[in-house]
Amino acid sequence: MSLTLRTISREQHLAYIQSLPAASHMQVPAWADVKKEWRSESLGWFDATGQLVGVGLVLYRQLPKIKRYLAYLPEGPVINWYSPHLEDWLRPMLAHLKQQGAFSVKMGPPVIIRRWDAAAIKAGIQNPDVKRLRDIEATFIEPRAFEVADRLRRMGWQQGEDGGAGFGDVQPRYVFQVPLENRSLEDVHKGFNQLWRRNIKKAEKAGVEVVQGQYEHLAEWQRLYEITAERDHFRPRPLSYFQRMWQALNTEDPNRMRLYFAIHEGEAVAAATMLIVGGHVWYSYGASANHKREVRPSNAMQWRMLRDAYALGATVYDLRGISDSLDENDHLFGLIQFKVGTGGQAAEYLGEWDFPLNKLLHKALDIYMSRR
Fold first, then answer.
1. In 10 A of CB 129, how many CB atoms?
2. In whole angstroms, how far apart are CA 69 and each of 1, 206, 322?
3. Fewer CB within 10 Å, N- or C-terminus of the chain?
């Protein structure tokens, strides 16, 4: 299999992404503008006929004081991961990145290894012996994903630790998704658990209205987001990040990012951002006020976003990261409990993988990250 790799233009990169049924929002060229603290490059793989057959967005983060970089491909590259000749795809990439001054490469193969349906997770939550998703028998296993992992190990790639390195940009290994393909909206609604259906009805009765916001409403989004950050003890991103995200993504494609608000009695009490690439739609960030939770604005908003995703012809509505913990005492348990109510599926990705091009600098980065 003869493949060549070279830097491509943003236009070539975007045209290739647009030709696919879906790809990660972190592999579109505009994501480089969102992550402006990283240097970026678009890579293209070409077959023997000169046709573009794969792309990758690389983000380079410089080490302090020396001109060496961590090269990161979040949820990428966008290549044929199930190719029996995976080495032919990744070897030229490593050679190129080394040439660019990378001392280590981190990537996130967009390959799902297992899925658990809502019924299996619910049974797991009720079983006192079950503490993690992995303790439950998967509803679906992708045997080819294990072959991908074996090939990567043989090539010298190392599997990243869950929640490990990556300058805070490490992506979730476990996500929750609602499949929409070959289902009617009625099927999707029926798939919700009783509590979700009741809460949607409750919001409707209380007069909760869900509306789409625009760029000028991001300040209102930020207000709710900072309330949420304080309540849930995480460090919020600044307003400038979301403004940059909106401008970068929607300049590339006017329907790439959306903003939603749940309004009750004239007041915004919940908000969310939504990202769209082809048939894959993500609920990206969520926020809510500390009061009026009894009118269930979050359920109403998710139902509206799901309906809009369906109207766009999406094949999957992705609620993004969950913890794999099914322990009711875990502070992240509420997240999986909320998402499982949609009747969707938990999915486990192959996780992030590292290739140390300079073992000494790679080790130094590991030590630095573990001390942060």
1. 6
2. 30, 53, 30
3. C
List strand residue ranges (DSSP E) for 244-312, in order.
257-264, 267-277, 280-288
Q: How many Å is the Cα radius of gyration of the chain? A: 21
Which one, of 118, 281, 300, lies nearest residue 191 by Cα? 118
Exposed, middle or buried by CB within 10 Å (0-12, 13-18, 19+), for 125?
middle
Helix, strand, coil share of the chain (percent; to 5) = 40, 30, 35
Which band of pLDDT confidence, cut at 50, 70 and 90, is reported for residue 331? confident
- Could you tell me if residue 166 is inside a domain? no
Q: Write the CA distances from 282 to 14, 165, 178, 182, integer angstroms.
A: 19, 24, 10, 19
Looking up residue 299, the CATH number of its domain turns out to be 3.40.630.30
Give the span between the Cα atoms of 10 and 16, in whole angstroms: 10
User: Does residue 156 sit within a domain?
Assistant: no
> What sections of 100-217 are H helices per DSSP?
118-126, 143-155, 185-191, 194-206
- Asked if 316 and 178 touch (Cβ cutoff 8 Å), the reply is yes
Cα separation, 191 vs 248, in Å, equals 35
Cα–Cα distance, 151 to 350 (Å, whole number)? 12
For 195, the domain range is: 114-124+130-138+174-349
Res. 57 pLDDT band, cuts 50 70 90: very high
Same domain, 344 and 359: no
* 3-state secondary structure at position 31: helix
Which of the residue ranges 260-264, 318-322, 329-333 would you say has the lowest mean pLDDT? 329-333
Residue 356 tokens, joined: 């140390």
